Amino acid sequence: MAQLAFYHLTRSTAAEALPALLQKTMAAEKRALVCCDLDQATGLSSALWSFGGGSYGEGSWLPHGIKGKDDADAEICPIWFSDSPQNNHNNASFMFFINGITPENLAGSDRVFVLFDGNDDAALTVARGQWKALKGEGHALSYWQQDDAGRWTQSA
Question: Which range marks the domain in which residue 12 is found?
Answer without folding.
Answer: 3-118+138-155
